Amino acid sequence: MPRPVIITCAVTGSQPSFRIHPNIPITPQQIAQASIDAARAGAAIAHIHVRHPETGDAVGNPELYQEVVERIAASGVDVVINLTTGFGARFIPGAANPRVADDASNFQGPDERTRHIVQLRPAICSYDVATFNFGETAFINTPAHLRAMAARITEAGSLPELEVFDAGHILLARQLIAEGHLQPPGHFQLCLGIKWAMPATREAMAFMLTLLPPGATWAAFGVSRAQFPMVEAAIEFGGHVRVGLEDNLYLDKGVFAPDNAALVARAAGIVERMGHRVATPDEARAILGLPRASAAIVGDDARQ
Q1: Which of 31, 61, 140, 145 is the most buried (most CB within 10 A)?
Q2: What are the C-alpha distances in Å from 268 to residues 174, 177, 193, 230, 250?
Q3: Are 235 and 263 a contacting pair, CB within 8 Å?
Q4: Alpha helical stretches, state H, 195-275
Q5: For position 292, what pLDDT does the model report?
């Protein structure tokens, strides 16, 4: 039966992709505009990281998040805000003493990683239930840190999007749910195709789905050339989808996507070709159990 399919657009991410692609959003204005354009193309949710406006490097500055959210709100475009808590999980052992982080690490504690969530109270925030080798670095989210972050996210009233990169991450998420740190049944994002984690295949996605709690909502994405094949698989298996320049720079082989909106439009076309329809922001809120017309709170109220 036809159903509404939520499209999330991950507009910029934390990788140094701006060194490859000329149109990666970097400044708050660019990130906000990319989110607005993605929403107009059919994205119900904008997944947002921030970058240093001058260097383009990933940062976790709450003031930059606030500027992005304020700009989106001022546009009048309706889109569900999803702010990342992923910044602060990277650890690189120091060469002289592996117990001391290398200067290139950004490893932080739970309070630092969720400060902008408590301040801005977005409808959704990503929550990486994951420790694994991410390229040449370690991406670390210990159970103790996850419990502390869950408490802060609950305080903010945000829905944690449980990002899982491998099968064991789902099992850990289920344990955190059983302990009462996360609300059942959970909303999961299956992250496929990242090196040294679950591959971007239909078989891998199908296996991960067997591990989800009964009644859980879920979406999935594949990186790089797997982005659109995983869109098709997720729709076929009954889930929702994510696209965007965070995960994939190309619209076709060797052809850069001009912007995030083009990737969203391609995903929307797949949704419709497969006999479904693109979910509106309010439909996404209803599916995920969010308050109607939910939005991040900004300005002085956010700091009270």
Answers
A1: 31
A2: 31, 32, 21, 13, 16
A3: no
A4: 202-211, 227-237, 260-273
A5: 76
pLDDT by residue (tens digit) across 46-55?
Answer: 999 999 999 9
Domain ranges of the chain: 4-303
- Which residues partner with 258 through β-bridges? none
pLDDT digit string (tens) for 254-284? 999 999 999 999 999 999 999 999 999 999 9
What is the bridge-based pairing of β-strands 90-91 and 137-139? antiparallel
Task: Please compute the mean of the pLDDT values over residues 209-224 and round it to a whole number.
Answer: 98
DSSP at 302: G
Helix spans in 43-142 (H) = 62-75, 110-120
Instruction: State both tokens at 254.
Output: 């060797």
What is the DSSP secondary structure assignment for residue 82, as one 8-state letter?
Answer: E
Q: What is the DSSP string of 200-216?
A: SSHHHHHHHHHHSPTT-
Q: Which two tokens stand for residue 287?
A: 């599916």
Please give the DSSP secondary-structure letter assigned to residue 93.
Answer: B
Per-residue pLDDT tens for 9-42? 999 999 989 999 999 999 999 999 999 999 999 9
CATH match for 4-303 among 3.40.50.620, 3.20.20.70, 3.40.920.10, 3.40.50.300: 3.20.20.70
Taking the model in full, what pTM does it have? 0.95
